[in-house]
Amino acid sequence: MAGTIIRRLVHMIAVLFGISVLVFLIFFATPGANPAARIAGKNASPQTVARVERQFGLNRPLPVQYALMMKKIFITRNLTSYVNLGEKVVPQVFKAAPVTLSLVAGAAIIWIVVAIVIGAVAAAFRNSWIDRLLMVLSLIGISMPVFWVGTMANLFTQGIWHHTWLFSWVPPLGYVDFSKSPVLWFKSLLIPWITLAILYIGLYARVLRAALIETMQEDFIRTARAKGLSERQVLLRHALRCSLVSVVTLFGLDFGVLVGGGALLTEVVFGLQGVGYLTYQALETLDLPMIMATVIYASVFVVVSNAVVDILYAAFDPRMRLRR
Amino acid sequence: MSHLLEITDLAVSFRTSHGLIRAVDGVSFSIAEREILGIVGESGSGKSLTVLAILDLIGDPNAAITGSIRFRGTELIGQKPETLRRLRGGAIAMIFQDPMTALTPVFTIGAQISEQIRIHTDLSRHAAQARAVELLDAVGLPDPHRAAVRYPQELSGGQRQRAVIAMALSCNPALLLADEPTTALDVTVQAQILELIRKLRDDFNSAVILITHNLGVVAETADRVAVMYSGRIVETAETAALFADPHHPYTWGLLGSMPALDGIRRPRLTTIPGLPPALDRRPQGCAFSPRCGFVRPECLPAPPALTGTAHQAACVLAGHERAAARNQVLAA
After folding, report:
1. pTM > 0.90: yes or no
2. ipTM for the assembly
3. How far is Cα A10 from Cα B123, in angstroms, rounded to an integer?
4. Which residue, A240, B194, B229, B271, is the most exposed by fewest CB within 10 angstroms?
5. Quick check: B227 and B254 in contact, CB under 8 A?
6. In a 3-state reduction of DSSP, which class is residue A189?
């Protein structure tokens, strides 16, 4: 197991290196992407552009530029924005990360629990009206765009029903740090959590239902029935455990992507200054250092959550442990 | 004498878009305590469905089971699911054909056996696990303590089948249903597993219904044999009587297609011409008639009934015609 984890870590570092090089090349070395000209502004004279190049080190060879940027991100952590001159990039990412993490982790707990319940119930009553109802609801959940759901949620909880007993507890939009007030943190995030979770509940419930129904055709399910297990025990003990692998796969990818900034729409709608928001702003202004920092931060999360998934696989399904 | 299990006129039908298909059609047999009954037939003859029907394990929502299945005097057809559930794995246990897929891949062997023990008894987790190890030892798995903490895919096919048998035996079943328990195994392992099943009767006092398509397996193991063809029993007798004096032309065909390991070796093996009829296109009369070399006009309107007392056959051939006809098949 230790060997596997070390191999996985080396693998992760290699992937991160690859991503950082790729992103760096896209923004600094693709033809037409001249960062110095952008910083210098519109209609800048060639002298100004040349000065900017010198000042920002953009006239150096690309490998040196890359190495300097990585050094500034990881070691000295004093990489500054090209847009808001003097503003340090890394602390901004670290300020935004807890917001996104709080949002995504809470939503993930909700969607995993609810999706497993819905998927299992639908599979247990497959082809009945309960199954059909749940699957139609799931499909509706998948189809509703998150920004619309978020806006509607705000309309009701912040607007027209805010003064009724139902939603009077909802605090104004924005993030409250956990260390400041756990209760307020929870209250401020509950609606965003649910909003973000709806799509994934629908998706995961459908995937789990399909996996469960497929597993229920296996020979070992008949053995489990022949042992005298009740239908519920067969489903929850034998089939669910084997079907969770498909959900874990999805979860690893989705979680990584969301923590890495994929929850942008939710963050914008609820005024949460998270990583998605930060990336969005950086892209709008083509703030290259900020883009580098957020992309690397995001890829760390995607890669780490994939590694966690691989380890979870082994925990759920011993067949995976024997591989290699 | 009261039977352990008595099946009367059992039929298993499937509702399909082409109408009702009777996969098992009017099967009746009984089995006494500690008896080993072999059910022989080719694929699709309904032998597996017959035993699956006993515990209502067919699992197809379109299947309908009719007739009567009495276990220790209690009717099982139409019984409450809860009552059937308590029988399953308890008084009636089942061994399936393919040990590679019959065990849940995510639980250890020991956990799967003790799970069954804990359903049917109130042993503690620890005691059930200890009993699982005992059972693994009893079925001849080497190093049962280690085997108990292994996952199914870490064992070989023969070892897994032993584990499956250990699981089936865990609650001392009065009746063991073995659905082709050796088909998926190597020949050498087959012999060991059959030996084990024979021993069960002595060690665990279980009666066994052994399904197979292999007459050799039956000859070695069973006390009594039922030959099935196209959903019906065509011949049933004590094993020795069946092999000494087979009555039904289909049984002759089965025997003729099997190489003799001792005695006179026939120059070539005979085959039964043709294929079994599709279940929805079964002939009106004897289902074997299209493939039978001795077909008579009276075979065609309706299937012949099983006749005889100890040795029954569903064939119109009279006793005195039989020997000559049989020699044509078996001495060819």
Report:
1. no
2. 0.86
3. 48
4. B271
5. yes
6. helix
